[in-house]
Write a structure and sequence with these properties.
The chain has two domains: 60 residues, Helicase, Ruva Protein, domain 3 (Orthogonal Bundle); 202 residues, Rossmann fold, CATH 3.40.50. It is 50% helix and 15% strand. The protein has 13 helices and seven strands. Strands 3-2-1-4-5-7-6 form a seven-stranded mixed beta sheet, sandwiched between helices. Strand 1, helix 9 and strand 2 form a beta-alpha-beta unit. It is globular and about 55 Å long. It binds S-adenosylmethionine. The site of S-adenosylmethionine has 20 residues, from helix 7 and helix 11.
Length: 268
């Protein structure tokens, strides 16, 4: 049996499981291809592919935050519609990445956009629940906002959110490592580069390298999930500088944020 046939059978079986049914196909395909290259039998390879998916994406799949957002949208009333920020705040608390951002929302996006200028199109790659911060971004109505994540259910609830609140935005289920639609002038890669680097060696650098947009906004957590400072600022700061150097981009640090934030500007 060829490696390709093996991998396809594995992809199909994994897609039929409840846990991974909502993951975009290319993510399952990558884990399966990597496993098929390393294991001799289909059974071993499938086990390894599932293990890999669990290691990389398990944390994003196990809690039912997509369901929680969906239920909150089911219950939206006209008071909520008048106050999108009040509606979104408790939902931002559902996910560790946006939770860390909540106290910083009033200043974070104005500071980012004061560096980039007002964008005409933002792509928020591996967006998680960050699109729920869109009403803090102060984007003009003419600005497109495209949110991409590997979870199909997340794209569905985010589109319901945009529509219900009359906000300009679109959410798409997609794989960042395969994404190639870069008409945006500003691309967000918030708190996802270490996760991409676990999916493929140096995928953090490779992803930034293939983005043609003028500004790429990177962020990293500054503390571990348990709240400890374990040298992350130094470690991730060094990696961001390395990525900027390799990609010929200038690095501008957005200081004073609750996460480590950098704008990587395309060199003149
Ligand atoms: C740590 S969270 C960051 C979420 C968001 N960017 C933020 O800062 O609030 C990582 C997100 O990346 C998504 N993700 C990880 N790998 C991805 C990939 N290859 N393609 C698309 N999304 C991915 C996960 O589903 C998860 O929502």
């Amino acid at each position: 049996m060829s490696a390709d046939v093996n991998a396809t059978a594995i992809v199909k079986r994994i897609q039929r499981t409840k846990k991974y049914a909502h993951l975009c196909e290319s993510v399952i395909r990558r884990a399966s291809d990597q496993a098929v290259a390393r294991y001799r039998t289909e059974k071993e390879a499938e086990k390894a592919a599932r293990r890999r998916l669990h290691q990389v994406y398990g944390a994003y799949l196990e809690e039912d935050w997509v369901g929680e957002v969906g239920r909150a949208l089911d219950a939206v009333d006209k008071d909520d519609l008048a106050e999108p920020r009040a509606f979104c705040l408790p939902l931002l608390d559902l996910h560790a990445s946006t939770r860390e951002r909540v106290d910083n929302l009033d200043t974070l996006f104005p500071r980012i956009f004061s560096e980039t200028g007002t964008p005409s199109h933002v792509v928020d790659l591996a967006c998680g629940l960050n699109p729920l911060t869109v009403s803090w971004m102060g984007l003009p109505e003419s600005c497109r906002y495209t949110a991409v994540d590997l979870h199909e259910g997340l794209a569905l609830v985010l589109n319901r959110f945009f529509e219900r609140f009359g906000l300009t935005g679109e959410a798409v289920c997609g794989d960042v490592l395969e994404w190639d639609d870069f008409t945006a002038d500003v691309v967000f890669l918030l708190k996802v580069l270490p996760c991409l680097a676990r999916q493929e060696k140096d995928a953090d650098l490779a992803t930034v390298a293939r983005i043609p947009s003028r500004d790429v906004v990177l962020s990293y957590p500054s503390k571990s999930l348990s709240g400890r400072d374990v040298g992350m600022v130094e470690h991730y700061g060094n990696r961001a500088r390395e990525i900027a150097d390799c990609c010929g981009r200038d690095l501008i640090e957005i200081e004073g944020a609750s996460e480590l934030v950098f704008v990587l500007r395309k060199g003149a």
